[in-house]
Amino acid sequence: MRDGGFQVDGSGVEGAEKAERPDRVDKRPNEQLGSWFLRSGWSKGELARQVNRRARQLGAHHISTDTSRVRRWLDGEQPREPIPKILSELFSERFGCVVGIEDLGLRAAHQSPSVAGVDLPWAGPQTVELISEFSRSDLMLARRGFLGASLALSAGPALIEPMQRWLAPGPIGRDSHAIGAQDRSPRASRLSGPELDLLESTTVMFRQWDAQCGGGLRRKAVVGQLHEVTDLLQEPQPEATAKRLFRAAAELAQLAGWMSYDIGLHPTAQKYFVLALHAAKEAGDRPLGSYILSSMGRQMIHLDRPDDALELIHLGQYGSRETATPRTQAMLYAVEARAYANLGQPAKCKRAVGMAEDCFADCGPGDDDPDWIRFFSEAELNAENAHSYRDLAYVAGRSPTYAELARPKMQQAVDLFEQDGDHHRSYALNLIGMATVHLMQREPEQASVMAGKALKIAKQVRSERVNNRLRKTVGTAVRDFGQVQEVVALTEQLGIHLPESAEAVQAV
């Protein structure tokens, strides 16, 4: 069966063995894969079990790998899809950086335009077509991210250079706004103003759900709404209507990307971010484009690519320098500080933190900010700056100086999110951040209290980002303070309420 640009053999294990039959020409040991495998510390059996587990999560139940199969890969056998993508994801997670398929000495499968790379045409009709095809494939194949098995993350020049074309001037007019725009007949849009208002208010509602419940609860609904918008864009529309629809598509695609990132579907998330940036360009909305680039930057920081993050943030800052509101500028400076922190550049980090605070001070209560940036409150400002100092502390070998700088800002963020009551995921993430600061300051009892509060929220939101950070923090506590009673109790609670965490904690 062929769908979404890749092939699935549904004939069971026997069919899968045939599908994975090696290419026998010039077969030599795969030294690149062998190097990553040796450094991972995994056994062949453990790697096989992880591949099978991930394949089941992706819905690829025909995959059945064993130690002899892993040995053949190391000896030079080329596995068939989706195994190269699975191996790329597993090694990326293991080492905390992007490990591409080619880095493993493997070959990527041919992909359709909807899933291939990020270097896409910057033109309205193609943008609409690609968003429509990608969202449709996601809806059809989203059994815990089966679509993601056909994607690979882009990083470095392969990511940055195509994004730089966002700055290139392009025609924003009737001809670029709709696939059906060649029809010059004077036809009114079937969309009324109130209907467009309702569409935009629905996006606001989706954004609120994401903040309260995490990315896993309503992601498909967002993708479905995005697909509906592309259907409307394929009809002839007046220019003003088309621009509003492209703006709605950009916001929905960004949100679909953010929700995908939140549940750990990183290649899918990156694809939505790229498509969102294309739609924002068609809408002529530079500040929205800068926000999308900041989302891409956050993802790159998470994937330990702060150099790429910094390039993306600078691109967003440059592109919106004359149009972004003080709140948007403050957000961009705050993410810039995170990138500098992870690059180990304290002076530039502190400068960006100061610029973020100065810009935020210019925000007025009656500012006419778009809804997509209103999340950046005083709580978020303190949270981002606290995490910048916390990250600096990690890079500097758990520096007590930077940990002390992080502590009051993190506490302020925790207090404000607790008072807010609507941003549950952000509250949980900052409780975990506060726990990490306590651990750096060798206060395991207080760290356990913060992590325990975060655990209660983690049970209510569907966010792998929250779960993984909680697992990592508890794992650090176990490693450094495993005999402390509060840490022992917290570990037991983690095993009860997030049972998948138990294996992760034990592995630290």
Beta percentage is under 5%
Helix content: 55-70%
Give, in spatial order, the strands making up the sheet with the most strands: 1-2
Name the helix and strand elements from N-terminus to C-terminus, one letter apiece.
EEHHHHHHHHHHHHHHHHHHHHHHH
For the residues shown, what is the average pLDDT?
84
The number of helical elements comes to: 23
Question: Which spans of ≥5 residues are poorly predicted at pLDDT below 50?
Answer: 1-25, 111-115, 171-186, 501-508
Shape: globular
Total DSSP E strands? 2
Radius of gyration: 23 Å
Which structural class best describes the helix and strand composition? Answer: mainly alpha
Main pleated-sheet profile:
2 strands, antiparallel
Account of the protein in words:
The chain has 508 residues and is mainly α. Among the domains are: 103 residues, no CATH class; 157 residues, no CATH class. The chain is 66% helix and 1% strand. It has 23 helices and 2 strands. It has a two-stranded antiparallel sheet with strand order 1-2. Strand 1 and strand 2 form a beta hairpin.
Please describe the structure with a list of short key phrases separated by commas or semicolons.
mainly alpha; two-stranded antiparallel ribbon; 2 strands; globular; disordered N terminus
